[in-house]
Design brief:
Mean pLDDT: 88
Number of strands: 0
Structural class: mainly alpha
Number of helices: 3
Distance between the termini: 31 Å
Largest sheet: none
Strand content: under 5%
Low-confidence stretches: none
Length: 96
């Protein structure tokens, strides 16, 4: 169980890097194609997106990557033959 949580934590840390990085790339793309960004009357709102988007994406991307990793690893640990596991539990304590 500790191994599952460690893998989930490591995946969450990967998400902590990838999510904000993708957010910065998206903001750069939007700034490039928005004619109002960088114009003389710009108040700096476009540039503030470079800071706010990665900060806003950090925690959700950590949680999403960790949750997906945990679910994937739990799915891999499921019994391949559930009927055999149920029979084994029903017969628990009996002599064969």
């Amino acid at each position: 169980m500790t191994r599952l949580l460690t893998k989930a934590l490591l995946s969450g840390l990967v998400g902590l890097v990838i999510g904000p990085l993708l957010g910065v790339i998206a903001v750069f793309g939007l700034m490039l194609f928005d004619p109002k960004c960088g114009s003389p009357g710009d108040s700096g709102g476009c540039a503030m997106g470079l800071l706010t988007v990665p900060v806003a994406l950090a925690l959700p991307s950590f949680g999403l990557f960790a949750l997906v990793s945990l679910i994937r690893n739990l799915w891999r640990l499921r019994p391949r033959d559930p009927a055999a596991k149920i029979r084994k539990l029903r017969n628990w304590g009996r002599e064969d």
